[in-house]
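Lab meeting, item 3. Inverse folding demo.
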């Protein structure tokens, strides 16, 4: 009976913690997604615009900057991204012939679009989010390059290229092996409005995602555009965008644990779990668990009493 009680408690606990897992719907946003052949019959993209030294190879890549000195290019969405919660999955390739290389590329979610400048091919003092894939180390002792760093721009603060943005860093990780990776380099950037921003990378093994960083609440501009840019200096590399898929995420706003719906993309399944940050709900579940255990224990005690010694005055029958 003790075993049955324990199983009952475990079942109650599992029910309390798992019953409110909710499936998130992922709605593809064609307006912010791009894949081969990239261009239509008029050599234009309906939803994206490109410029600078960007070269489009329709069956293979969008090359923002080629392996030559002093090149820069950009790719930006034509309309703003208005989803409250979203996920951007992108495939890029950073490669070149030389043993020395630079400078880097960036993913942007900024208030202003298509503005060339000195920050990985984009304008400085931007307002919004910049995600930098920095392949050349200027002055960041103790940091392994390539280096992936997020910066939240306020429209007034400059990116300090001299120390690789050390003072402007929101979150970061080192990504040794990202440049020249033998498998497609992929990223997954997930944003829940004013709750969290998470980046995962895949560049070592297929279907093996590495958590780069996850922040607390951040606030993006009310209107922002999705873009990519890259630049080379005296040293160079090829900076290619292969594929971009953006999804709008719909989830229960009650901050309960939610499980992202699994879909197959390119014959691969991608899953993600986001846990609740609400302490109140956790206490409710713990209380439910304790009540369930108490009920189980009382039931066990009642059962034992009903099977105990017979009432006084009754005769016992003995079997030898």
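The presenter then showed the designed sequence:
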């Amino acid at each position: 009976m003790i075993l049955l009680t324990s199983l009952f408690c475990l079942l109650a606990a599992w029910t309390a913690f798992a019953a409110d897992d909710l499936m998130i719907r992922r709605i593809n946003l064609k307006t912010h997604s791009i894949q081969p052949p990239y261009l239509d019959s008029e050599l234009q993209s309906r939803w994206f615009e490109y410029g600078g030294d960007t070269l489009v190879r329709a069956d293979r890549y969008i090359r923002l900057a080629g392996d030559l000195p002093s090149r820069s290019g950009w790719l930006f969405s034509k309309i703003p991204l208005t989803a409250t919660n979203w996920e951007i999955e992108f495939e890029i390739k950073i490669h070149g012939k030389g043993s020395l290389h630079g400078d880097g590329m960036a993913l942007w979610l900024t208030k202003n679009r298509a503005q060339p400048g000195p920050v990985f091919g984009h304008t400085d003092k931007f307002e919004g989010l910049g995600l930098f894939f920095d392949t050349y180390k200027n002055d960041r002792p103790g940091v392994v390059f390539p280096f992936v760093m997020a910066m939240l721009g306020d429209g007034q603060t400059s990116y300090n290229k001299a120390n690789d943005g050390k003072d402007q860093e929101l979150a970061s990780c080192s990504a040794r092996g990202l440049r020249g990776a033998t498998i497609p380099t992929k990223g997954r950037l997930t944003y829940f409005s004013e709750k969290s921003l998470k980046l995962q990378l895949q560049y070592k093994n297929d279907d093996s995602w590495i958590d780069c960083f996850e922040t607390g609440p951040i606030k993006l501009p009310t209107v922002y555009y999705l873009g990519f840019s890259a630049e080379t200096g005296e040293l160079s590399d090829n900076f290619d965008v292969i594929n971009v898929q953006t999804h709008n995420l719909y989830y229960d706003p009650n901050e309960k644990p939610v499980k992202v719906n699994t879909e197959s993309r390119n014959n691969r399944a991608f899953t993600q779990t986001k846990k609740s940050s609400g302490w109140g709900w956790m206490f409710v579940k713990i209380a439910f668990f304790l009540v369930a255990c108490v009920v189980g224990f009382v039931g066990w005690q009642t059962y034992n009493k009903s099977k105990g010694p017979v009432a006084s005055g009754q005769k016992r029958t003995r079997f030898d």
